[in-house]
Amino acid sequence: MKKKNEHSIDLKSWFFKFRSKWYLFAACAVLALAAAYVYIKSSPRIYEFNATLLLGDQQTGSKKAQELLEVLDVQSRGIKVEDEIGLLQSAEMIKQALRNLDFTVSYYKVTDHWLNNITHLVVEEQYETAPYEVDLDTSTFQLVDIPIYVRPIDDQTYEIRVEGEHVPRYNFRSHSTVESLPEVKFTKKLKYGEAYKDENMSFTLDRSNTKDLSDGKEYYFVINSLDSQVGQQQSALGVAPIDREARVLSLSSRGTIPDKQVAFLNTLMSEYVANDLKEKNQNGLKTLEFIDSQLAGISDSLRRSKQQLSSFRSTNRIANINVQSNISYEKLSQLEADKAKLSTDRSYYNNILEQVQTGNGIAQSVSPTVSGIQSPILNSLFLQLAELNQRKAGYSVNATQDNPMLRKIEGEIESTRTSIVANIKNLIRSSDISIENLNKRISEIESSLAALPENERKLMDLQSEAEFVSKKHDFLLEKRAEAAIALATNATDKKIVDHASMAGTTPVNVKPKMIYLLALMIGLAIPAGFIILLDSADTTVQGKEDLSSITNIPFLGVVAHGTKADKLAVLNNQRSAIAESFRSIRINLQYLMADSSFKVIGVTSSISGEGKTFCSVNLSSEMALSGKRVVLIESDMRKPTFSKYFPVSDTVGLASYLTQGQPLDDVIQKSPVDNLDIIPCGFLPDNALHLLETPKMQELVDQLKERYDYVVIDTPPIGFVSEYFVLMRHMDVNLYVVKHKYTDRNLLSQINELHSSKRVKNIYMIINDLNYNKTYEYGYKRKAHYYYA
User: Fold this and answer.
1) How far is 770 from 739, CA to CA, in rounded Å?
2) Residues 328, 331, 336, CA angle at the centre, nearest 5°?
3) Which residue spans adopt a coiled-coil conformation according to this UniProt entry (predicted)?
4) Measured between alpha carbons, how far is 233 from 227 in angstroms, rounded to an integer?
């Protein structure tokens, strides 16, 4: 069997197949273009918007002020671009932006377009152009995410209509869904400006005096829940760095209303920058609160100490202090000042420890740097904790609580917080030891001063206390000034580079030329694919080339397609395409067998219905009309069909000759065709195969070969019965008939095996019922009708 070249594509053949089904292409193209038209008209125009945001390098104003004042230098905190992107796209950040925008009610207009006669296909969203305005009462429940239709009746009244299933009942105060109503359906007539209120809704609809209500077929508005707005904006928002190493983020969004999307992007960026500044200001505010609380107590102590010193001097008339005792008192004063500073530091450490242990110090505790306490380890731990919390915020946008990376970060946060607590406790213990040492030294100096005169000693005590309180007060004032400067000069390092603007002037989703072209391609591809699929699934013989790819048996010719009235076309219409087909077969057969003497011609096929008898009758008739003496034998004694072609007797025939020994001249019958005699089947025997195996059959063939030029035997199909294999030994030439687009390729395996094993000789293939208009190979014969009657 020949193997077909699977890689070769006969474009002309496929073009012919496509052209024969041109009506499918036309219909699909029209439908596709119509669908494209509906899509273009019904799809809302979506535009793309871009903005640019700079993240900076995290050098805050507070940090710069501290460096200016020579406060402890702290290593700057780095940022993760991915975390910042996560924060920008987080639901909480988008909620903050939406709370500052009036997007709660969306207005729509059903235009007066003919497509809307079918259903609401062409709908336009209106933003600040609606001819009416809805004033919501957010203190009550509202039905959200469902169209509320508005039909103007006259200049004073209108009608609302609501119909839907599983409608959310929403609380705008808590921004949560209270319940889902199984079904909502009602219609109500109202006057403009009249409040509508029931257990599910409360609003007032006011008509705009500057806009006309008559330009729309119908109007409706939708009350949007905050969650639905967040979901819509979050799905349309895209954030990405302009380059892999860049700190400039490109924000993009898509929407139908340019003003609406521009406002959203600008508000989102403003909220993001403001949040960053707010977060950084909290550090300075916490420091100021702590220093102010310490100053409140120190100011009272300073006032009391000064009053006591002044009163003591006045009562005891003491103007100066002994120079010798001054040295001791100065030392004592210095030690007291050192003790005061350590006490202040210890109080600050206790304050930080309390915030961390109670949970308030996880991300917003007072930075030790601002107070002037030099602890690089503690500073580093606080910065590490802040960075871990920022990373956690970034991951929390899209990750669940079971996310391994999120759980790892939470573990690192807990570990860092534990280290902070341990470090602060160490600093407190160190302060306690230092204070204890100072107390010991102070006690020694106080003991030495005990020998001074009582008044001088008391004066020195009062002066020492006043100086101590004064120094502590001055120290706190200095640190408060530093903190105030740091807070005043604080600035965010995030900056809006480019405000939102529309990218281009054309929609990104509706491009008519491209859509029509794509629709046309789809409209042509669908029928082409359908034809290719059907052709691939069709296992019948398609033509000569197809036949030659599945068998090596020589090809003899084709028989043109005809009708049921063309059964004996060779005789009745000798100028027909069918008659011409059999002439070509006869000539080809005589040419191929020119070097041999052949008398007996066998005609068979794979199964019934392939035109085997039709071909044997017309080929015999063509031979007889050419002047040859021909006899046609109907050897199919199971399903005889000669009676459809000739007026024959069903009692006398081949069966009676083989079984009853009836004379040959009695079984031979004349046909309407000159020079053509026929031997019909006769009656139907019970043992057809056994009869054909008898010597009587050989005797019959021998006698007929002497009387006639050609003996044509119409045999049963080889796919059903075995008679052909018995009759095969009598035949000089075998004609195998396959029907165009009827015979399955797999049915030829049996005859291919006989041919390859050389058990059958001189066999040729004939394609029957080939429609020239439906095949590329013989398409040229369509013009031959001029030569046919």
Assistant:
1) 8
2) 125
3) none
4) 10
Collapsing DSSP states into helix, strand and coil, what is residue 61?
helix
Domains of the chain: 11-43+510-537 (no CATH), 104-223 (no CATH), 287-492 (no CATH), 544-787 (3.40.50.300)
Of the candidates 524, 541, 433, 496, the one whose C-alpha atom is nearest the C-alpha of residue 769 is 541
Q: What is the CA radius of gyration of the chain?
A: 53
| pLDDT tens per residue across span 731-784 | 899 999 999 888 888 888 888 888 888 888 889 999 998 877 666 555 545 554
Residues linked to residue 53 through DSSP beta bridges, in sequence order? 249, 496
> Lowest mean pLDDT: which of 196-205, 278-287, 684-693, 711-720?
278-287
CA dist 713 → 468, 617, 706 (Å): 138, 10, 16
Task: Return the beta strands (E) in 192-286 as ranges.
Answer: 195-197, 202-207, 218-223, 238-241, 248-255
Cα–Cα distance, 122 to 159 (Å, whole number): 21
Strand order of the β-sheet with 195-197 is 132-136, 202-207, 195-197
Specify whether the CB–CB gap between 733 and 589 falls below 8 A. Answer: yes
> Average of pLDDT values for 424-437?
87
Check whether 70 has a pLDDT greater than 70.
Answer: no
Give dist(CA 229, CA 141) in Å, integer.
18
Q: Of 229, 183, 182, 222, give the one whose Cα is nearest residue 203.
A: 222
DSSP 576-623: SHHHHHHHHHHHHHHHHTTTS---EEEEEESSTTSSHHHHHHHHHHHH
Question: In angstroms, how far apart are the furthest CA atoms of the chain?
Answer: 178
Q: Residue 333: what pLDDT?
A: 82
Residue 4 pLDDT > 60: no
Task: Give 109's strand partners.
Answer: 124, 219
Q: What are phi and psi of 549, to 5 degrees?
A: -80, -15
Separation between Cα atoms, residue 269 and residue 48, nearest integer Å: 17
Give me the amino acid identity at 257.
I
Under DSSP, is residue 479 helix (H, G, I), strand (E, B) or coil? helix
The pLDDT-based confidence of 456 (bands split at 50, 70, 90) is low
**What pLDDT digit, counting tens, does each position of 85-108 carry?**
988 999 999 999 999 998 999 999
Beta-carbon count within 10 A of 333 CB: 21
Q: Name the H helices within 610-742.
A: 612-625, 654-660, 664-667, 688-693, 695-707, 723-727
- 8 A C-beta contact, residue 495 and residue 53: yes
Residue 225 contacts by C-beta under 8 Å, 6 or more apart in sequence?
A: 144, 145, 168, 170, 175, 177
* pLDDT tens digits along 316-371: 555 555 544 667 777 878 888 888 888 888 888 888 888 887 765 444 444 544 44
Q: In whole angstroms, what is the distance from residue 749 CA to residue 606 CA? A: 10
- Considering only residues 642 and 372, tell me which one the structure prediction assigns the higher pLDDT: 642
**Cα 61 to Cα 277: distance, rounded to the nearest angstrom:** 10
